[in-house]
Amino acid sequence: MEVARFLKKPEGSFFLLGPRGTGKSWWTRKSFPGALIVDLLDPATLRELAARPERLVELVKAAGDCSTVVVDEVQKLPELLEVVHRLIEEKCGKVFVLTGSSAKKLRRAGVNLLGGRAGRLSLHPYMAAELGEAFSFEGALRHGLLPVVMSAADPDFQLRAYCGLYLKEEVQAEGLVRNIGNFARFMEVMSFSHGGVLNLANASRECAVKRSTLEGYLAILEDLLLGWRLPVFTRRAKRELARHPKFYFFDTGVFRANRPKGPLDEITEIEGPALEGLVAQHLKAWCDYSTGGHVLYYWQTRSQVEVDFVIYGESGLYAIEVKNTHKVRPEDLSALKSFAEDYPESKRFLLYRGGEMLLRDGIQCVPCEIFLRSLNLNSIDILLGKKSF
Question: What is the CATH superfamily name and number for domain 14-122?
Answer without folding.
Answer: P-loop containing nucleotide triphosphate hydrolases (3.40.50.300)
